[in-house]
Amino acid sequence: MTILATPGRPVRVDAVLDPPLSRWLWLVKWILIVPHYVVLVFLWTAAAVVSVLAFFAILFTERYPRALFDFNLGVLRWSWRVAYYAYGALGTDRYPPFSLGERPDYPARLDIAYPERLSRGLVLVKWWLLAIPHYVVIGFFLGGWHLGWWDGGLIAVLTLIAAVALAFTEKYPKGLFDLIIGLNRWVLRVAAYVMLMTDAYPPFRLDMGGSEPHDEDDPS
Fold it and tell me: DSSP letters along 36-73, please?
């Protein structure tokens, strides 16, 4: 089922654990995913340029040009699918598509509601000043830990634990999956905010599990 973002919940991240998962494929996914990494280098370079263009467009018109918005949304979707397949979650063995578009049939999905208006004032400060507390938090999620030879963040550590559990038990621990998706959901919400795609400040809340909480359960 396709998830749809709403103004009340502008960034929606959904993931489905996709059994059966191979016990050993995760050992070589770093090789299999190389073509995606190469493409994503160019896509993220383009996304940085697009975000700068969007900054000036919002500053002068209060609007994020739809074509630019859709491109950056596509880059985030592509990145999330690759992360989910590889070492951001290891939640599926289905190779991610080379596509910027929405793929409702893929087990990792992302949607961001298109904003009709964005604040000119916030665009000046949200991507660097207001986002600083979140940068500190997601720094622990994504990197900065040094454990002997290991140089990675909490998400990578937890994904490695899931890989070991999968190798020995052929099962992905459900509680661990829910936590990993919650951490990735936090990161993607922050990414959408600092890419100027929403004025809604990301909540300091770990919404765990593959599905977004129902709107009626949202304390905000």
Answer: HHHHHHHHHHHHHHHHHHHHHHHHHHS---HHHHHHHH
Q: Coil, strand, or helix at residue 142?
A: helix
pTM assigned to the model: 0.92
Q: What is the residue type of 164?
A: V
pLDDT at 161 over 50: yes
**Bond preceding residue 133 cis, omega within 30 of 0:** no
- Separation of alpha carbons 192 and 118, rounded Å: 13
Residue 147 exposed, middle or buried by CB count within 10 Å (0-12, 13-18, 19+): exposed
Strand partners, 11: 112
Task: Give the start-to-end residue ranges of the domains of the chain.
Answer: 11-212
